[in-house]
């Protein structure tokens, strides 16, 4: 899979982000995207082939694998990366709309089209809420699908066509568990960064609005 489009998206968003937003971009790019491409993808590359059960009953191994791993960890991680980065497109599109509007009217309508204020502030806040919500949804999804974040060494399966309880062994469980913990840690860090940025912007512009209103009353 090519991740160039995601890299370009994150680079574009970085122009219009606050300081905390730039840290979020760095975390997603360096500690999630690069780790995924450089290491994690290879670890789960042959997960089905390396899943072994102590029986050769036709279909048993496939059914057990599908039961314990309904969605591949690595594919779900890739989907999470894409989904949590997508809301940032709202900000890019809004800035592009402002720039296009200025070209259409052939005059300067904004001091800086990329400045977070007015309608762009609302779009930015919505993107932060969506990113935070998606991070939480995927963490819950990971936990529910796999009964936690730890990869077991052995699973017991008694689903048909298996004739009895079968022991199945998962390859590299310790290594996979470490990467899953890393995934959870980086997701939690991104949630904290998003909430911090959201709180900062709401506080900053609430104070700004209050002072502006107070000045008008004094006048």
UniProtKB/TrEMBL annotation:
Question: Single GO cellular component annotation?
Answer: connexin complex
Q: Where is the Connexin cysteine-rich domain?
A: 134-201
The record's annotation in Gene3D superfamilies points to: Gap junction channel protein cysteine-rich domain
List the keywords (alphabetical): Cell membrane, Membrane, Transmembrane, Transmembrane helix
Domain Connexin N-terminal residue range list: 42-75
Specify the domain of life of the species encoding this protein.
Eukaryota
Compartmental location: Cell membrane
What GO annotations for molecular function exist for this entry? gap junction channel activity
**Keyword field contains S-adenosyl-L-methionine:** no
- Supply one GO BP term: cell-cell signaling
Q: PANTHER family, per this entry?
A: CONNEXIN (PTHR11984), GAP JUNCTION BETA-7 PROTEIN (PTHR11984:SF26)
Under InterPro entries, the record lists: Connexin, Connexin_CCC, Connexin_N, Connexin_N_sf
Query: How the protein sits in the membrane?
Result: Multi-pass membrane protein
Instruction: Give yes or no: UniProt keyword Cytoplasm.
Output: no
Tell me what this protein is called: CXB7 protein
Which stretches are transmembrane? Answer: 21-39, 77-97, 118-143, 178-203
